[in-house]
Design goal:
The structure is a single chain. With 137 residues, the protein is mainly α. The protein has a single domain, classed as Globins (Globin-like, Orthogonal Bundle), CATH 1.10.490.10. Helix content is 71%, strand content 0%. It is built from six helices and no strands. It has helices at 5-15, 19-33, 46-61, 66-82, 90-105, 111-132. Helix 2 packs across helix 5 (90-105) and helix 4 crosses helix 6.
Length: 137
Amino acid sequence: MTADPSLIRSSFAAVQSHGPQLTEYFYDHLFTHHPELRPLFAAHLDEQRDRLWAALGALVANLENTDTLVGMLQNLGRRHAGYGALAEHYPAVGDSLIAALRHYAGDAWTPAVEESWTAVYGVISSTMAAAGDPAAR
């Protein structure tokens, strides 16, 4: 499975006007399907939603700038590990991210777009999980 950067960018452009709603949907989906993850997050998510949206924008903007992207993801991975995130949490987060993107992308969401986002999320999660693994540090 490979990611097509142009599909990532175009589908992100399709959801950009829905940023606050998309991140709210993401957290609702995550906590509905994985309530055991709720304690890892602050009681009020307003600031966290803004951070998530900013991180997604930075990811999309740096898709083809590998050094910047990897550095950003490693920093995020170390920070998330400090909040208690474990490698086994990343699939649930990915499922919720894909669900939120799919929900707001409308007709821009195709099987190829989903394949691209799934591939990108695989890189995101593996990079963040490796950086957050205390044995790897």
